[in-house]
Each structure stands twice: as C-alpha cells, then as structure tokens.
Amino acid sequence: MIIEADGDWETAAKKIAVAGFSHAGQSCISTQRIYVHSSVADAFTDRLVSLVEKLVVGDPMDEATDVSSLISEGDRDRVRSWIEEAEAGGAKVLAGGEVRNGVLAPTVITGARPEMKVCSE
Predict the structure, then answer these.
(1) What are the distances in angstroms from CA 87 to CA 7, 9, 40, 64, 102?
(2) Which residues sit opposite 3 in a β-bridge?
(3) How far apart are CA 118 and CA 87, in angstroms?
(4) Contacts for 114 with CB less than 8 Å, ≥ 6 apart
(5) Among 17, 63, 94, 96, which is least packed, fewest CB within 10 Å?
(6) Chain centre to alpha carbon of residue 116
(7) Nearest to 112 by CA among 85, 79, 75, 81
(8) Taking the model in full, what pTM does it have?
(9) pLDDT tens string for the chain (121 positions)?
C-alpha cells in the first residue's frame, strides 16, 4: 500500500486496519507493507495504531472478534520470532507484538528493513 500526501490517508488507515488483519493476516491479499509519504507519515501512523489497538482479539466463533489466532501455535511462535528479530535489528513495535491468551496481537511495526524476516518471509 502506498499513501501519498494528497490522498485520503484517514480512510486508508481505516481500511488497512481491517485488511491487514482479516483472517489473522493470513490472506494472500492482506495488507503487509505500507509506504507513507513523509509529510503525513506521523499522522497516518498514529491513526492506524489507534485503530489496530481497538481490534478485538479472541475466539473466531464470537461475532465480536475482529482477529483470531494464526493457523497453529508453531506459526504464531514463528511470526513472534520475526517480530523479535525486527526489534533487535532496530525496528519499533508500535502496537501488538505480544501473545495474549494464546493469540498474537495485531502488530504494527515501523523501521523494518527488507532483509528482516518480518519483511522477507
């Protein structure tokens, strides 16, 4: 996703908060990377983080749930290790990143580099 300075970045943030985490982010068309023009990057990021933090994590059978678990505990742990690697390499986790009741919380990261597993895998 590319967010230009003159685009409707607020609507984009709302749509990305849903698109990035539907099916626990395991859809081949989920939003994974977002490139944002520097003049709106802080405002966009703040809005996206606030929306992601409001997502309800839980049981997929509960209609109130927005995001549920990854396909297996092994996949959850693998993705969590990628987040840890990114943090160790200087990326910042702005939302999520932790496991709550067995579910990896929806996560927003900035400063990830292409060679990091969170980007490349």
Answers:
(1) 30, 26, 24, 31, 21
(2) 36
(3) 10
(4) 120
(5) 63
(6) 15
(7) 85
(8) 0.88
(9) 999 999 999 999 999 998 888 765 566 667 888 999 999 999 999 999 999 999 998 888 888 988 888 889 999 999 999 999 999 999 999 999 999 888 899 999 999 999 999 998 8
Question: Rounded to 5 degrees, what are φ and ψ at 89?
Answer: -90, 5
Instruction: Tell me how far CA of residue 72 lies from CA of 11, 24, 30, 103, in angstroms.
Output: 32, 11, 18, 10
Q: Which of 95, 79, 85, 93 is nearest to 116 (CA)?
A: 85
Q: Are 110 and 41 in contact (CB under 8 A)?
A: no
Q: How many CB atoms lie within 10 A of CB 64?
A: 7
Backbone angles phi, psi at 100, to 5 degrees: -120, 120
